[in-house]
Amino acid sequence: MHTDLDTARLLLARLGVRAEELLAEPAPTAPMPLIREYLPRVANAVPVGTRRAYQPYWQRIITAWGERRLDEPTPLEIKQLAEQVKANAVPRRNSRGGRSAAEHLIGALRCLYRHAVNDELIDERDNPALRVAKPRRLASTRRALPAARLAEINEVTATTGNDPELDTLILRLHTETACRRGGALDLRPQDLDETQCLIYLREKGETARWQPVSPTLMTHLLRHAEDRGAPPEGRLLRYTNGQPITTRRYDHLWQRLGRHLPWVATQQVSTHWLRHTTLTFVERNFGYGVARAFAGHEGKSDAGTTTTYIRAELEEVAAALAALTGEPHPLTPLPV
To answer: Where does the Tyr recombinase domain start and stop, copy by copy (predicted)?
Structure first.
């Protein structure tokens, strides 16, 4: 008997528990929230870009599991839901069998459960989303456009549609800066440094950078903002009625280009191809470091620790732009 008590006392001592604590009432635990109750709280806690990307998938999760507790879905059920989303994905010009939809659904669930772990609603070891692998990403079909093909795109853009001035400005902006759609859509008049021909780009992952543009493009951006009544803190790119453009303008532009240039529709060319085109030119002529800075790739995971030592200066990016456009830039007066 004494041996059993000694063993119990030794065990309690090692666990750091006093015998009196065993007699106390257990602390009440908060009830596990339903998925439909917890998801809106997560949506309000993430950056705007993350919310925009995941919102459609969070809505699908609420539709499927809204009345279930947060700790109920299993890895197998998540895998089944991902396959359903993949099978029912809406076919688009650049569709790849719904793989992206499945990837985004799993990413949306991982975001949800990461917050649940942080809130101590579930243990990290019980996170079901981490035990479901995302679909392997296929190699991109995008590539740099030859000069002749790019000229065709610019010619059709300038001679068709209901607002060629807007569309040519959009293409010139993307060609010169290699910016993403989000960066162009979020550009504001107050982001233009006319003196140094720089624009302030804010893109995905809450990254931001000053990007050189040619004096010609700067002139057209300023004129566009003035003619279409863009307020300093509002979006710069606007329709003739003064309303800011959305991603739908890009969709209509490439659909129109595809009707006039069949190869555009066949190869599913999009705005991101312009980014590939510009960055390929910069990398071939000015090296990886300058291309990386030109693209706005500043993340630690882009290409390992070595990139810390090959960061390009803004003047080097401006020199690459001057070579691309054949136009002097204030940060590097003579074209390279």
So the answer is: 140-322
Q: Which two tokens stand for residue 95?
A: 């569709």
Residue of 257, 269, 288 lying closest to 145 (CA atoms): 269
Clarify whether residues 58 and 205 are in a common domain: no
- Give the range of the structural domain holding residue 179, as residue numbers without chain letter: 147-298+307-325
The answer to whether residue 23 sits within a structural domain is no
* Predicted confidence (pLDDT) per residue in 17-54, tens digit: 666 666 665 555 668 999 999 999 999 999 887 888 89
Task: Tell me how far apart the alpha carbons of residues 98 and 87 are, in angstroms, rounded to a whole number.
Answer: 6
Can you read off the two tokens belonging to residue 38?
Answer: 């917890």
Give the pLDDT score at 301. 53
Six-digit token string for 2: 């004494």
Q: Is this structure's pTM higher than 0.85?
A: no
| Residue 109 clears pLDDT 60, i.e. is over it | yes
